[in-house]
Amino acid sequence: MVSYESLFGVAIIAIGMVLTPGPNMVYLTSRAISQGRLAGLISLAGVALGFVCYLLASALGLAALFKTVPVAYDIVRIAGALYLGYLAWNILRPQGGSPFEARVLSPHSPRRLFAMGLVTNLLNPKIALMYSALMPQFIDLSAGSTLNQFMQLGFVQIVIAVSINGMIVLAASSVSKFLSERPSAMKAQRIFSGSILSIFSIDLLLRK
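The chain above was modelled as a monomer; its predicted structure follows.
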């Protein structure tokens, strides 16, 4: 059973990650603004399937790896910390971007919307590294099956990511307009996301 501390840690990282600029957020907000809420939700369904694919592949592969090569855990921990720091810098730097700066997209059919959401997530390096380098930091090798722990942590991440993305899709037009008219609010959103990722980057580096 995963500890409450690990569940909370993954939840905080999931919130920070879903609010940071990335292909998923840019595509979903852009699609919702350009084609409407239903199109955004269909795209989000594809993104959700992408999360499940990553979770299953990473859980099975990393569970076996940590069991046979314990030192791999430290390698993954350091890689994850460095990646979090990289994401934080890209958000906090003066020219950092926001996921709510959406692009205008041409209309797509429901099938293509779902497929594009899936492909966008599967090709998103941020999500790939989150599952392979960040989530494993919260697995306790002495707490039983690493596979079960990974699945529990992944479920928490997916629920949070899909829920927040869903809310943003539903309010995409209003949120985008609100933030574009208030530079200070846009800056506050960037500082919040970047700060959370920075804190966890330092915490992972200091872990034993």
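The CA atoms of residues 64 and 147 lie 8 Å apart.
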